[in-house]
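ok so i was messing around last nite and threw this chain in just to see what happens. nothing serious, just curious
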Amino acid sequence: MSSKPLDYENLNENVKKCQYAVRGELYLRASQLQKEGKKIIFTNVGNPHALGQKPLTFPRQVIALCQAPFLLDDPNVGLLFPADAIARAKHYLSLNSGGLGAYSDSRGIPGVRKEIADFIERRDGYPSDPELIFLTDGASKGIMQILHTIIRGPNDGVLVPVPQYPLYSATISLYGGSLVPYYLEEAADWGLDINDLRQCIGQARQNGVTVRAMVIINPGNPTGQCLTEANVKQILQFCHQENLVLLGDEVYQQNIYQDEHPFISARKVLMDMGPPITKELQLVSFHTVSKGYWGECGQRGGYFEMTNIPPKSVEEIYKVASISLSPNVPAQIFLGLMANPPKPGDISYDQFVRESKGILESLRRRAHLMTDGFNSCRNVVCNFTEGAMYSFPQIQLPRGVIDAAKKLGKTPDVFYCIKLLEATGISTVPGSGFGQKEGVFHLRTRILPAEEDMPSIIASFKKFNDDFMEQYE
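result:
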């Protein structure tokens, strides 16, 4: 019988090239061990609610009423839900004919996009156009949509930070483009050197690659650094000089654990710089409800905002968005609530602030606990997690580990992470899944386990690591 279209050898080669380490070999092994009865601590992906973070009360109240609008007609609804949640539910139901069960505009509900534009204006101090905001099923879908629009073929390149979130490498492979890495400097707290950027783009062009875009992840994933305003300004000037569109992955903008480097959006820095760059540089910025103190990963709500993108290009992006008819409507309401949360004087304001501050303050403590814990371990060095949700320690592996891994056909950091998983149940992601310099090894873990569980998790890691180093040294 002849081979069939979905036989492996006949699949799209770009699909086979895709690698996504966050749900890769380590995750599959962890899932298998869990089925066998072993307790697993999944720290492979930024998934706050899966590790016990409680949902914020107000947005869940609003969405519950939107999902079950018949409750609004119940005379006792005011006994179960605060008046401001009831009012907001009625507001969102009025914005989309047919409620949550109906398609919305392919860009998202206009009223929600207006709330997001107002949020951006409050954040940056400059007006935002709702017509240039597209709501998406998580920020990932928006990033994929924009990359699909930019990449025309194998000679089109995208500058991506290394270490990077593997969404970028996987998507660029899927769409048949070329990833052009630029390396962040670990010794400089994962800083970015503009001179290195220039070398990277020059080398790519010598190799026949047309570099069309640059990605920044701020705060960083997996590295956790926060870019300074001066660094963002350098990046914008570089993209302007090189005629690149800048893709600003800013999904962790609420996750800041220090005061020295506050988050500042690429859009605000661009607007502050003034003409001609303000009117010329093309920028697409991304945000989501999956991160921050919301952590609503399963809701799949995200958006992107376009700056200086020509109207005809916006029309083409809208056309592609229309193929899926509309983004997830309940997630759009979460985005509206994130952009327009309870205000002082609202019934739910005090509870909302108490819950959100409690989450962020706990995350800040956990960032210190995790960093200090790693740095107390033998042959482990870790920069402080300034933002985002991750620690990315460097594991200085002895020669014996490298030799043992080679015999098994594995990279040394994968070998280490598998041993860690099997000994402790801690599921991490090897640094090779994000990219790293030759001969340097890392792992990525989340700072998301419950605060009360952190000491025992760190102690378990330390015992494993120190015993492992003793064995192989």
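not much to say yet. The radius of gyration is 23 Å.
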